[in-house]
Amino acid sequence: MNDMTDGYMTADGRKIGGVVMELKNITLKFGGVTAISDISFDIREGEIRAIIGPNGAGKSSMLNVISGFYIPTEGEVWYRGARRPQMRPYKVAQMGIARTFQNIALFDGMSVLDNIMTGRLTKMKKGLFAQAGWWFTGAAKEEDEHRAKVEKIIDFLEIQNIRKTPVGRLPYGLKKRVELARALAAEPSILLLDEPMAGMNVEEKEDMCRFILDVNDEFGTTTVLIEHDMGVVMDLSDRVVVMDYGRKIGDGPPDEVRNNQDVIDAYLGVAHD
Ligand SMILES: Nc1ncnc2c1ncn2[C@@H]1O[C@H](COP(=O)(O)OP(=O)(O)OP(=O)(O)O)[C@@H](O)[C@H]1O
């Protein structure tokens, strides 16, 4: 399972590939606060990888390291076999890493369709000058291609009936689905989901779970998610990293992690030495 090249088969028959990203001995400090302390783990092609842990464990900080938003104080991020140099988050996005946010970050006044189109920005080759000469420069053809990709995602996530609706008018669960659609529009090779089910009712959670699994199945999207709802995590994930006080206390398939005494203690709030 830890071999760098081989994959493995899941119990439900999905093929998980080789390692796409490796986090090696990551430490992240904010002044005197150590948010992440010497954590290593890997992410494999096509898997659903969860990061869980109590409040303040360092999960969001870790997602921000993966997305390139934070540069670790120590340690290395390896992506597709090469050490990733320090780079701005939009460069990381261009490398194929897209994300959703804990607090929804959409443009309320814009339609669902236009919000999802913004997810294509990293894919757009024609710049502003080309847009000015829209037809002659081939920008029109490019725009058609982007729209076709976006329409496919809209169909897939079953949001055709709200494509013209301003996002600000949508209920919470649908906004989260639009955010997922926008991230998918970037055709990510790694999709990062920061608490995709937070604040949802049971029905909305079931829908979101189904969509995450369907996206993984249909597009083979490697997915890393942070989630508080343990039931959801255990149902969805292939492998789970457990963090507590900035340290890694567990890493493995859900059943293994569920029976790990350190994990049980962390969730029951057992005091540290
Ligand atoms: N920008 C920052 N500046 C200073 N300290 C920070 C910053 N971001 C996070 N921290 C601290 O780092 C630690 C880990 O925070 P982080 O938000 O990563 O945890 P978390 O597991 O995502 O928590 P939650 O589940 O509550 O969202 C906390 O002690 C937090 O206060």
From TrEMBL:
InterPro entries: AAA+_ATPase (IPR003593), ABC_AA/LPS_Transport (IPR051120), ABC_transporter-like_ATP-bd (IPR003439), BCA_ABC_TP_C (IPR032823), P-loop_NTPase (IPR027417)
Signal peptide: none
Domain of life: Bacteria
Keywords from the UniProt entry: ATP-binding, Nucleotide-binding, Transport
GO CC annotation: plasma membrane
The ABC transporter domain, residue ranges: 21-270
CDD domains on file: ABC_Mj1267_LivG_branched
One Gene Ontology molecular-function label: ATP binding
Pfam families per record: ABC_tran (PF00005), BCA_ABC_TP_C (PF12399)
SUPFAM superfamilies according to UniProt: P-loop containing nucleoside triphosphate hydrolases
PANTHER family linked to this entry: ABC TRANSPORTER ATP-BINDING PROTEIN, CONSERVED COMPONENT OF ABC TRANSPORTER FOR NATURAL AMINO ACIDS-RELATED
Protein name (database record): ABC transporter ATP-binding protein
Species in which this protein is naturally found: Pseudothioclava arenosa
